[in-house]
Write a structure and sequence with these properties.
Elements (H helix, E strand, L loop, with lengths): L3 H20 L9 H42 L17 H4 L3 H9 L3 E6 L2 E7 L2 E4 L2 E5 L2 E5 L4 H7 L9 H31 L2 H6 L16
Antiparallel strand pairs: 1-2, 2-3, 4-5
Helix pairs in contact: 1-2
Length: 220
């Protein structure tokens, strides 16, 4: 079933197609070319925004589902012994000793739990891995600890704790684009400084070691 956003995109595609056809006519037969171009740009902007909203909604739903799954699995009483069979399943008889885990597995029979260093540290649901504990590596030893709360567990599993609304997304997008432009400008200045010092000539003649400095080769 088509969503409202899908219908809007289809309508905009039809309108844009008609306007593009109008624009492809001989120039002398097209009235108000400038207005036509402005209208096309406005519609393309509107279409992009709807597509972004649709994609953002899909991403939020995905993270909400992952968060719910994580919350459910963290609430389970997990064994401190390895009850996994050679086939990767949980041992049916031993599983009965853990009611919450047994109940969870009825609804999630394809989930596989992984036992490491005396703990069930992660589980796999298809190709997706969910970490049940945080790990620390020191002195060639990995230790595991519980998360202090669901938010920490979400961050560790790269799951968005709060949904990202469109207004905040656009604000973040604008900040990222502005920062990217600032960095580009700084890199361009650095390139100009290096070129002014004839570093490429000196390097080509082996007068300086190319490993002793960094050259950014960029094109604008």
């Amino acid at each position: 079933m088509q969503t409202l956003n899908d219908r809007k995109i289809n309508t905009l595609n039809t309108i844009l197609s008609d306007l593009q056809k109008e624009l492809c006519k001989p120039l002398e037969s097209v009235k108000n070319v400038d207005e036509l171009l402005i209208k096309i740009k406005e519609l393309e902007t509107e279409k992009k925004e709807i597509e972004q909203k649709k994609k953002l909604s899909t991403i939020n739903n995905k993270h909400d589902k992952r968060k719910l799954f994580l919350e459910q699995v963290l609430a389970i009483e997990l064994p401190t012994e390895d009850i996994t069979t050679n086939l990767g399943h949980l041992h049916a008889t031993k599983l009965k000793k853990y009611p919450s885990l047994a109940e969870f597995m009825k609804e999630n029979q394809y989930v596989r739990f992984i036992f490491k260093n005396g703990n069930y540290t992660e589980c796999k649901n298809g190709q997706e891995i969910t970490y049940l504990k945080k790990s620390t590596y020191s002195d060639n030893t990995t230790t595991y600890a519980d998360f202090k709360d669901l938010k920490e567990a979400c961050n560790y599993n790269n799951i968005r704790f709060d949904s990202l609304n469109f207004k905040k997304f656009k604000a973040l997008e604008n900040k990222i684009l502005k920062e990217s432009e600032r960095i580009k400008a700084e890199v361009k200045k650095s390139i100009e400084k290096l070129n002014a010092l004839d570093c490429l000539f000196l390097e080509s003649e082996n007068l300086i070691n190319k490993d002793s400095y960094t050259t950014y080769k960029a094109y604008y």
